[in-house]
Amino acid sequence: METPPVGPAVNAPGATCRLGPSPTALAIRLEGLQARDGAALDALLDQLSEPPWDVEIDGDDDALRQLLESRGFVEYARGSLFARSAEGLDAPRVSGIEVVPYENQWAPAFTAAEAEAMDGLAAFRELGSPSGYEWGAGQGSFRIARTTEGRVVGFAHANLPDGLIDWLGVVPGSRRAGIARQLVAHAARDVRAVRGTHLLAFGEDGTGAGTFLGRLGFRARGRRVLMIYRAAPAAAR
Ligand SMILES: CC(C)(COP(=O)(O)OP(=O)(O)OC[C@H]1O[C@@H](n2cnc3c(N)ncnc32)[C@H](O)[C@@H]1OP(=O)(O)O)[C@@H](O)C(=O)NCCC(=O)NCCS
Ligand 1 centre and the CA of 203: distance in Å? Predict the structure, then answer.
């Protein structure tokens, strides 16, 4: 995840968004995008640097979805946004596993674990391998789970203080042992330490993420669709 240029709010008559690095695609994320109509969206997009651009929209906002599709955006993932309090989430230690802050020197081992754990996820297809998270030490809450022999078997990255868990995975051979629960409990502690109050996570449809999050006390807060614009502006507009 190379950090794209992060800008302030972008405004056009009838349209607005903020720019940031996308956590789920090699793209610039148009955060909080609002556009009154096609002309307003065009005026906003004209101000951006080169695509790809991606956007997470309310899954029930058919008008915005159609507007984006008319300008060449395509859906690449859908699911639900889940939330819970950062308080009261504890997890028993998992025997033979330690959870430690991530260090960039573990990039090769992390990338191998990531490729195994995230295989099949639409967000990982968009990001590609390596995802860029391997350079993320010290940014937000970023911890790995490793065996006593030093093998990386799980990881969790969350933004602070807002508590959005944007990258969480456990390798298939180590699942259902409580490792992800422990990683999320550590993230909750990091969030509380900076006076954050909630945890948020995106559960992609067709994966076990929603069930997992439900078991940890998260509640679905709404449908979300992730859309991306990959082509050069002149080609599609
Ligand atoms: C989702 C994921 C992180 C869970 O990791 P894990 O270490 O297996 O999770 P835990 O063992 O801590 O699970 C805690 C509880 O969640 C539930 N759960 C976990 N995975 C589940 C699944 N695939 N289907 C149904 N329930 C599941 C179980 O109730 C489990 O407790 P139990 O085993 O005692 O019944 C892992 O399956 C994964 O990496 N998936 C692919 C990446 C992904 O979807 N990431 C986004 C997560 S929001």
Answer: 11
* Residue 212 beta carbon below 6 angstroms from any ligand 1 atom: yes
Residue 27 lies in a domain: yes
Q: Are residues 125 and 188 in the same domain?
A: yes
Query: 215: Cβ below 6 Å to ligand 1?
Result: yes
Nearest to 144 by CA among 132, 126, 157: 157
Ligand 1: which atom is nearest the Cα of residue 117? 39
Q: Which of 20-24, 134-138, 192-196, 232-236 has the lowest mean pLDDT?
A: 232-236
Tell which residue, 5, 3, 64, has the closest CA to residue 32. 64
186 and 124 inside one domain: yes
Closest by CA to 133, choosing from 153, 115, 151, 160, is: 115
Cβ–ligand 1 distance for 222 under 6 Å, the answer no
